[in-house]
Amino acid sequence: MTTGPTEARPIADTDHSPAPTGPPHGRWHRWRWLRHEWTLAVLGGLALAVALTWPTLRHPASTIPGDLGDPTLQAWQVAWAGHAVLTDPSGLWDSNTFYPEKYTFAYSDTLLGYAPTGMLGSGFEAALIRYNVLYVLLHALAFVGAYALVRQLGAGRWGGAVAGVAWAFAPWRLAHSGHLNILSSGGIALCLAMLARGHGWSLRRGYRPERRRPGWALAGWLVAAWQVSLGFGIGLPLVYVLLAVVLVAAGGYGWSWWRRRERPPFGRRLLIADLAGGLVFGAVTLLLGLVYLRVVDLNPQAERTLDWTVMFSPPLMGFVTAPADSWLWGEAHAAAREQLSWPPEMALLPGMMLIGLAGAGLFVSVYPARHRVALGLGVLGTVLLGLGATLGGDGDPGYLTLSKHLPGWDALRTPGRMMHWTSLLLAVLAAGLVTALAEALRRVPARNWTRILTPAILLVPLALVTLEGMNRTPHPVVPRPPAAMRTAEEPILVLPAGGVGDLVYMLWTTDGFPRVTNGLGGFEPVTQAQTRTAVASFPDPGSVAYLRGIGVRSVVALPGQTDGTPWEGIAARPIDGLGITREELDGVLVYHL
After folding, report:
1. Are residues 433 and 488 in the same domain?
2. Going by C-beta distance under 8 Å and a sequence separation of 6 or more, which residues neighbour residue 163?
3. Are residues 133 and 252 in the same domain?
4. Dihedral of CA 115/223/169/462: which sign?
5. Angle between the N-to-C axes of helices 157-168 and 419-442, in degrees from 0 to 180, rounded to the nearest 10
6. Which of 444, 468, 492 represents a domain boundary (last residue)?
7. Which pLDDT tens digit goes with each residue over 74-124?
8. Residue 418 sits in the same domain as residue 547
9. pLDDT number for residue 305
10. How far is CA 288 from CA 112, 230, 235, 304, in A?
11. What is the DSSP letter of 171?
12. pLDDT under 50: residue ranges of the chain
């Protein structure tokens, strides 16, 4: 049974504050939108995102959250996508890195959906600022998406706020401060909210045909397509979730039709919206899938084996262990993290407060009991999938079963990322409890003390989930590109080559996007290892001949970074008789081949 007769209005039922008496075009009327629930939700999400990701926006043109690895790669990806769309859309997939390979933009999740932002500004500093702003905005979108979803499902505003913060700023996300593609999950919750609203459905009241909104359904499919365009790492599970939802909904519709001997209301406009939106969603998924299949055809080593999944499968303890970047739990859970073989993918705490609220929400909630049971089973199911190969010793049945039978699932090598779904379901359960509490407090006879006590009580869970979202993420300074990168004739090889340094070189190329042989992605093409081996003794006759043979025109060497590499002491190596020239620019060597 649900607690309390009062219904918390979902998105479609959101109460607009009535206009005061007086002229309709007065000052209050003109600025009424500032008090609208969704204006406040968006502004609140932005403010929280700036505060809880701080100091990301302190020095956005010189620092980057996380480390100098994947974040620099992804800053380049966003910049390349915008540059390619503006200058040569047909060459999008053949990026300026990994020269002379093809389809190099698809060597990892592409973040293609952020291409419009990549069109704003140009150069190294613009790429950094763009990345840092996106980093903040994606947290705001996650908050708004979760808030919208639980409001549509029947929770109140306090429940929406708690769910939004708990999902968008969950402790486990701090382990992925360097993975923009993994953090960019706001579209998941937002598309589900739009689809639910479009179909007039909520957890609290079920299906109400009079509340159907075909436009919202179409928007939901388009947002889902955009989410998939950010990458299959978290986009592919969304594809299968929506497919399952469609099949279950169609089955339920058919069963209702058969049992009642009459057609339940659905509507031609809603059907057209679903077909059109589903077609766009399917087309985006299929086209991106074909690109990645092409990459595997050209590079068989790009295909992931299940050994990767086994290696990244977390133990059950990981679900209550926070990452090191958690301000509240990081130090307290240090001993637990030492028992994890790969903490960045195995420290999966969704939040102690969230777990407690969701657990209580199984028993006290505004949602019907059957829906609470379904949510609880969903949490259990996603946790079992998130265990990967550690479930039952081999993960079959479980995550590895999906890897063997669902197309593309074998490429999802990190089962712990199912925490997106676990924490979202927990947030929905928590919102049901907080809403029940808020409605119970509203039924208390109005007194001066109740007007103060009610928000004070409701602020407690909100404050606690916010506290758990506080970070201590490092923000290292990104090395600026040397002048030689702008003056050397392309294609260019940068030395020392290999390792995470190649990711910084990729970001450097955002100043004009010269072609470079360097690159690092989700796998290493054969030519990368061949090139490093062939040029280990550069400059010498063999390495010069090899580089000329693949079309390289310049080599940029960074003597200060060559210690411990095959190119240590490169400045002292002679070039006599090689037919090349060398110049020094601000401590950087440029070899003209």
Report:
1. no
2. 146, 147, 149, 150, 155, 427, 428, 430, 431
3. yes
4. positive
5. 160
6. 468
7. 999 999 999 999 999 999 999 999 999 999 999 998 999 999 999 999 999
8. no
9. 84
10. 10, 10, 11, 17
11. G
12. 1-24
CA atoms within 13 A on the CB side of 390: 19
- Return the amino acid letter for 59: H
For the chain, the distance separating the N- and C-terminal CA atoms, rounded to the nearest angstrom, is 78
How far apart CA 382 and CA 488 sit, in angstroms, is 51
Domain count, the chain: 2
Last residue of a domain, one of 468, 494, 527: 468
Q: Which two three-digit tokens encode residue 479?
A: 């090395």
| Burial (CB count within 10 angstroms: exposed 0-12, middle 13-18, buried 19+), residue 287 | exposed
What is the C-alpha separation between 20 and 29, in angstroms, rounded? 8
Q: What is the pLDDT of residue 373?
A: 97
One DSSP character per residue, 301-335 reads GGSPPHHHHHHHPPPGGGGG---TTBTTTTTTTHH
Q: Can you read off the two tokens belonging to residue 162?
A: 């708690």
Nearest to residue 45, comparing CAs of 119, 108, 139, 111? 139
317 and 378 belong to one structural domain: yes
Least Cα distance to 478 among 504, 502, 503, 460 occurs for 504
Structure tokens at 342: 């790969």
Domain assignment present for residue 27? The answer is: no
Whole domain around residue 536: which residue ranges? 484-592
Which residues share a beta bridge with 582? 591
- How far is the CA of 172 from the CAs of 81, 135, 352, 556, in angstroms? 29, 16, 11, 40
Instruction: Identify any residues that bridge with 477 across adjacent strands, giving them in sequence order.
Output: 63
Which residues lie below 8 Å from residue 542, measured CB to CB, with a gap of 6+?
534
Q: Are residues 497 and 421 in the same domain?
A: no
pTM of the predicted model as reported, rounded to 2 decimal places:
0.92
pLDDT digits (tens, 9 = 90+) for 425-435: 999 999 999 99
The closest of 135, 33, 104, 24 to 475, measured between CA atoms, is 135
Assigned domain for 584 exists? yes
Rounded to 5°, angle at Cα 149 from 251 and 286: 60
